[in-house]
Amino acid sequence: MIDLLHAELKRTWIQFIRYPTEVISGIVIIIAVFYGLFASAQYIAGPGFAFGDRLDAVVIGYALWSLIISVNNDIAINLQIEAETGTLEQVFLSPFGAPRVFLARAFASLALRLVILVVVVLLLMGLSGSRLAFPPILLLPLASLLLGGYGLAFLMGAAALVFKRVQQVLGIFQFLLLFLLAAPLEESTGLMQYLRFLLPMLPSTGLLRDLMARGLRLDWLTYGLALLNGMVYFALGLLVFRWAEATAKQRGSLSGY
Amino acid sequence: MALGSTHQHPATPLPLLPSSGKNFKISKDFICRWELNPFVQLAHRPTDGWAENSLSGSIMLDTRDLSKVYGRGKQRFEAVQQVSLTLRQGEVLAFLGPNGAGKTTTIKMIAGLVRPTQGQVTVAGEDPHRQPRALRHIGAVLEGNRNLYWRLTPEENLEYFGVLRQVPRKVAHRRGLELLARFGLEEKRQTPVQKLSRGMQQKVAIAVALIHNPKLLLLDEPTLGLDVEASEMVKALVRQIAQEGRAVLLTTHQLDVAEELSDRVAIIRRGRIIAEQSTEALLREFSSSTYHLEVEGDLSPQQIHTVTQLGATVQGRQITYAGPPETLYKLLGALSPVPLVSVQRDRADLTQVFLKLVNDQPDVSP
Predict the structure, then answer these.
(1) Inter-chain residue contact A252 with B79, CB threshold 8 Å
(2) What is the rounded CA–CA span in Å between residue B156 and residue A12?
(3) Is B302 within 8 Å of B326 (Cβ atoms)?
(4) Interface test with B, best of A93, A100, A255 (most B CBs within 10 A)
(5) Which residue, A251, B153, B270, B301, is the most exposed by fewest CB within 10 angstroms?
(6) Rounded to an integer, what distance in angstroms lies between the CA atom of residue B37 and that of residue B40?
(7) CB B192 to CB A18 under 8 A?
(8) Do B147 and A87 count as a contact with CB atoms less than 8 A apart?
(9) Contact residues, chain B, for A246 at CB < 8 Å
(10) Nearest Cα to A150, choosing from A93, A115, A109, A179?
(11) Fold of domain B48-284
(12) A241: which strand partners?
């Protein structure tokens, strides 16, 4: 399994480095969109308005959104691309089994995406003047967030295996993600403050905002619930992916696109 | 059952030769190919005796009553019906059929990529649908697929797919280099696959399919879209691979390729196997027993008389004989000492056999 992980890291890195213009243009687009949003919000609010820690929260929300979008689309888009280019069936010929291969791929692409995220956050901070804190403990809610994110990625991957064309769904899903990641529901009162633990990733993003933007300490009970949330969505994603693989093999549509 | 045509196959096995298991058929086109590529001689398809010997090899692939049904109700379509195949170590089976006959579906069921509705697949004693470990025994080059990462070099592809097939990374790297050397791709090992010629890409795909040392190699249209030279290279590789003791299941629409490479042929039509036997036996069955002889000098009136008495007809230096093979020796004796130029038997080729079988078979309704 270590060899597989190493091989996936190497493959991901080689494909990234061999055609870096794609990734660089991706980063530029993310930054440009953020700057556009930021400048518009400032224009509407007027020059005297201070964003304060809300700005920091927005930066975190936006950076996470860009990370989770790429994580989320990762499996589905790659499945579709590989079906089109004709490598998908070779991947399914692996004795490791598809879920393990795609899990290793998820880790490999995550490593790359985290590097990209650091670049994006630093650029966003430079553009917006936001000053974010990076206490090492934030790795914990980040991990639970990614668990949930990859759970959704496997769900999307399952949809790609069964339904093939999922770009439309992925497009709409990005806006749902924006809500899940950027809406500060941890500040909400009433029923929503409990319901947010059932929605994917929401508890983890709240904790990240607490740690990075509000300077609060990690609330372990909330973190326990966030981790449970991440694990449940991750397990659900894997389970549905297995079902989708079996369904695609049943229909004989594994390589279709 | 003989065909009407008088196609003269260059690789006619002469009854003059004792049918020892080690005799190879020699033909004009074979000699030409040998001059182009010495590999051909080493691995040219041997005679029946060898095929019979190979029966002693252990069974690498066994499918029992494989069936695949798509859809329900009015949309129900039986793509494959009760296909049973056995393939032994070192054997090449050409799996032939018209488009849509069920070849690719069968191959994918064998590879564990399509789940059969009924029936069972066993590869080296393991079921790829129940035991993912069984996939270690299977290498596949699938038609219509690139089978490779085009942004990666051949070396990187081999290492990556080796690990994907559970070969330790260092071993995969070493074996990859060995395969590249063997396939004559050393110089291109660091060129991204997308910049290689189609023939080279196909060779890399076959190398990738061999990286984990599989016992069964599935080749779906391995020479499709290749030029003559690349096609010859791939054919030579397939022969070598079979000689190493791997079982090879090959589908192709190029029936000359199938005829050259295969020990056995299975023909599928509308999802059902309509013929399965050794290539030699199948060709023999569809060949007539007419011999064409050519001599270098003129025959004497006495020789013409004897030859005619034996049932042959003489036209100048051409003699045609249709009768029992034993009498052929008497006929040859009667021609002595006039030098012989050639002795050829009318022989069907696989294309004729295939068309005859596919077109003549009545529709089999389930």
Answers:
(1) yes
(2) 12
(3) no
(4) A93
(5) B301
(6) 6
(7) yes
(8) yes
(9) 115
(10) A109
(11) Rossmann fold (3.40.50)
(12) none
Within a 10 A sphere around the Cβ of A227, how many other Cβ atoms?
20
Single out the residue of B264, B197, B273 nearest to residue B234, CA to CA: B197
Taking the C-alpha atoms of residue A68 and residue A91, their distance in angstroms, rounded to an integer, is 24
Closest C-alpha among B137, B116, B142 to residue B202: B142
Residue found by looking up tokens 């924006």 in the block: A178
Give me the residue from A6, A85, A95 closest to B150, CB to CB: A85
- A120-148 as b/e: b if 16+ CB within 10 A: bbebbeeebebebeeeeebebbbebbbbb
pLDDT tens sequence across B245-287: 999 999 988 888 888 889 999 999 999 998 888 888 887 777 7
Give tens-digit pLDDT for B138-196.
Answer: 999 987 667 899 989 999 999 999 999 999 999 999 999 999 998 889 999 999 999 99
How many Cβ atoms from other residues are within 10 Å of residue A221's Cβ? 7
Examine the predicted complex and report whether its ipTM is higher than 0.90.
no
Report the C-alpha gap between B200 and B214 in whole angstroms: 21
Helix orientation angle between A2-18 and B154-164, rounded to the nearest 10 degrees: 150
Domain with CATH 3.30.70 in chain B: 289-345
Single-letter code of the amino acid located at A95: P
CATH architecture group of domain B289-345 = 2-Layer Sandwich (3.30)
CA A20 vs. chain centroid, Å, equals 21
From the CA atom positions of chain B, what is the Rg in Å? 23
Q: What is the residue whose two structure tokens read 């000098």?
A: B297
B132 touches chain A (CB under 8 A): yes
pTM as predicted: 0.76
Which residues are paired to B199 by β-bridges?
none
Rounded to 5 degrees, what angle do the CA atoms A231, A109, A152 make? 35
